[in-house]
Amino acid sequence: MIIFLGYKFIEFLAFITPYPISYFIAIIAGKLTYWLGIYVKPLKKNVSNVLNIDIKDKRTSRIAQNIYYIWFRNIIDFLKHPLVKGENFKKRVEIVGFSNLDKALKRKKGVVIFTAHIGNFEWGACRVGIEGYKIWGTALSRPYKKTNLFFEKRRLSKGLYTLYANKTLLKIFRLLRKNEIIAIPSDFNPTGTGQIYDFFGKKAYIPSGAVEIALKSGAPLVPSFIWRKGKYNHFQIIGKPLKLIREGNIEELIKINNQKMIKVMEKYIREHIEEWEMFHDIWL
């Protein structure tokens, strides 16, 4: 209840303040959060491992701070979600690669989109949904029902449906058979079932859910990532489906194909490290 009221209060502030002021508040919130040391240690470890620089390097601290500044701006964008409508929303998120998505959907097996916690990935999925595609984003169910509804309504206003990862996943295969789209962030598994994979030359716990679903359903596995373009806008790419190996021992197939997916995520995380909002220690 308290968390829900907190979201509503922050949303109220986002509604009554123009974007420049909202973003100024976001910067202050980022500075305060970093100063308090909240999740700073895993952020620095992530930056250090991705860029292969010392965790005490000044660049590590600077990038970790910038992650917070950008993350809070993304929160502002999401809270202002109901105010950014239709064509204005489309202009805010420039997107390329719909032809890749259309080609994948022609197989009539649905599409599994994999992404990472880069940029405003909520807006990324919504940008696909507002074009009329039936897309579902995986999320964690929260204990308080009104908090779940708070997020569901804002996603659904742009055509993004919510699928709870820590509840039943059987629904996923029914949706794919209907040729719909499932979007899954694949750089962190909040349910704790990730396996150990090579990640930026280190060992890390990475989930394989997107790959497993694609293999079992026959759906194409398509990459999509979003990052900021200028102060207020975003750029999103939908890539070509990964060429999955589908014949052989299932456990080996999962490992081989998941490593393929990881290589793609590594590229975009490295290129946009200041927007990698990974507040967890995923490393072995």
In words, what does this structure look like?
- This protein has 284 residues and is α/β, with parallel strands linked by helices.
- It has a domain of 191 residues.
- Helix content is 50%, strand content 17%.
- The chain has 11 helices and 9 strands.
- The strands form 2 sheets. A 7-stranded mixed β-sheet has the order 1-9-8-2-5-3-4. The protein has a two-stranded antiparallel ribbon with strand order 6-7.
- Helix 2 crosses helix 4 and helix 10 crosses helix 11.
In short:
It is built from eleven helices and nine strands. It has 284 residues and is an alpha/beta fold. The protein has a domain at 85-275.
Query: Can you tell me the overall shape?
Result: globular
Largest sheet: 7 strands, mixed
Distance separating the two termini: 35 Å
**In what range is the share of β-strand residues?**
15-25%
Oligomer type: single chain
Query: Class by helix and strand content?
Result: alpha/beta
The succession of helices and strands, N to C, reads HHHHHEHEHEHEHEEEHEEH
Widest β-sheet, arrangement of strands: 1-9-8-2-5-3-4
Number of strands: 9
**Radius of gyration, CA atoms, in whole angstroms:** 19 Å
Helix content: 40-55%
Annotation field: number of helices: 11
Give the integer mean of the pLDDT values.
92
**Poorly predicted regions:** none
Identify the notable features of this structure and list them briefly.
single chain, alpha/beta, two-stranded antiparallel sheet, 11 helices, 9 strands, 50% helix, 17% strand
Task: Outline the fold blueprint.
Blueprint: H1 2-16, H2 19-35, H3 40-51, H4 58-79, H5 86-92, E1 93-96, H6 98-105, E2 111-115, H7 121-129, E3 135-139, H8 145-156, E4 160-164, H9 170-177, E5 181-185, E6 195-199, E7 202-206, H10 209-217, E8 221-229, E9 233-238, H11 250-271
Parallel strand pairs: 1-9, 2-5, 2-8, 3-4, 3-5
Antiparallel strand pairs: 6-7, 8-9
Helix pairs in contact: 2-4, 3-4, 10-11
